[in-house]
Design brief:
This protein has 396 residues and is of the alpha/beta class. It has 11 helices and 17 strands. The longest helix is centred in the last third of the chain and has 19 residues.
């Protein structure tokens, strides 16, 4: 069985995924869609794709089985629901939605249509998350006690230009989005490892003091004063977690996690990743093992493996990535975000073909997102402890 895939939105991020969909052995055709006719024509030529259309409305009418939504953040939720209601499987870039109402409608659409939905959360395929999932399944952590997750991304690292591109002359009004509206890089690593979800949160925010006044301005459409937000979480397994989403910070930038159990834990800082135990002599430095490098194809069996010694956070795979599961057609194609892109595409296509729920299904997507939405509301209320809505587990 093979599927036909439409890619809605062909901007800079989508260009990492278009060649992967095109080369996947279970995808028979790719259709590109964008409102910008020039950008659409440019990418159809670049990737040698003939079929195209100019709106999601048109794409939903075409003979495609699945739609990959890689558009602006605030459009993801409604566009995913539209595609699902049109009978299409959906892959969505993060975040899945920007409100509780939107995520509730998204979960309902998946449940009522029976179609596959997958959130393209890169962090669940980061080397640290894969490593910790393996050790958690073996019981090596013991009982989870405490977790930390953080996404440190100062806006000087390219985000001002992104906002200008997205919103044109009005970009300053949209700049100050609450950091906790995009918590999924941090939360997903913890939730995908332990299987526990957030039940309660207390959120706190740092009122921005930057002289550019992009958060505190009166016409901020988000009515949000916080450039940095942190939430303390009560988890369903009895553990605690701290999640920080910082957009004004003197830091080179990271998506990171630490996870501690009664028997052992995983800990990371900039440039160092460790398996930690009660005995210092049995701690393991994982920095090199979890570093990403390039992919090669072995001539003898056609299987892919890591090229050792290469560096680069946003390309290739780590030693522990299960590259043997990837189609050999992916060799030499783009990868990114710590080896996640190729796995995201392969797992989505496989889910569509087999009918099995992917790791990043809609119920997990809700558990990645909703705590942040509630935490922002808590921060506005001075840190009040608030219950987090849970949409349950995926059907068996």
């Amino acid at each position: 069985m093979s599927i036909r895939v439409g890619v809605c939105g062909v901007g800079a991020f989508a260009r990492h995924f278009i060649p992967l969909f095109k080369r996947h052995p279970d995808v028979e055709n790719v259709v590109l869609c964008d409102l910008n006719a020039d950008k659409l024509a440019e990418n159809c030529e670049k990737f040698d794709i003939r079929d195209r259309c100019h709106s999601l409305d048109d794409l939903c009418e075409l003979n495609v089985d699945a739609i990959a939504i890689i558009t602006q953040h605030h459009l993801h939720g409604p566009q995913a629901v539209q595609a699902l209601r049109a009978g299409k499987h959906v892959y969505s870039a993060v975040p899945s939605a920007i409100s509780l109402k939107e995520i509730a409608e998204l979960v309902r659409a998946v449940e009522e249509t029976g179609k596959t939905y997958m959130i393209g959360e890169t962090s669940t395929y980061y080397p640290c998350a894969i490593y910790c999932r393996e050790r958690f399944r073996k019981g090596d952590f013991g009982s989870i006690v405490y977790a930390e997750g953080e996404y440190y991304h100062d806006y000087v690292h390219g985000m001002v230009d992104v906002m200008k591109w997205r919103h044109g002359k009005d970009w300053e009004k949209y700049f100050g989005i609450p950091p906790m509206f995009y918590p999924t890089h941090s939360t997903s690593m913890i939730v995908s490892v332990t299987g526990a979800h957030v039940t309660h949160v207390s959120g706190m925010g740092f009122v921005d003091r930057h002289p550019d006044n992009l958060y505190a301005r009166k016409d901020n459409v988000w009515k949000n004063p916080f450039s940095n937000e942190t939430m303390l979480c009560r988890m369903s397994d009895g553990s605690m977690a701290r999640i920080s989403e910082f957009r004004r910070i003197g830091h080179p930038g990271t998506v990171g996690m630490s996870l501690y159990g009664t028997e052992a834990g995983y800990e990371e800082q900039v440039g160092c990743r460790m398996w930690v135990t009660k005995d210092r002599d049995t701690c393991i430095n994982l920095t090199d093992r979890l570093k990403c490098g390039d992919i090669q194809v072995n001539e003898s069996d056609g299987m892919m493996s890591k090229v050792t010694g290469a560096d680069g956070t946003h390309r290739g795979v780590s030693e522990i990535h299960p590259v043997h599961l990837l189609p050999k057609e992916f060799a030499g194609l783009p990868n990114g975000h710590n080896g996640s892109h190729q796995f995201l595409v392969h797992d989505f296509v496989t889910a569509c073909v087999t009918g099995k729920n992917p790791l990043n299904n809609v119920w997990q997507a809700a558990r990645y997102l909703v705590p942040g939405l509630v935490a922002h509301e808590s921060a506005l209320k001075g840190g009040a402890l608030m219950e987090v809505t849970d949409f349950g587990d995926p059907p068996c």
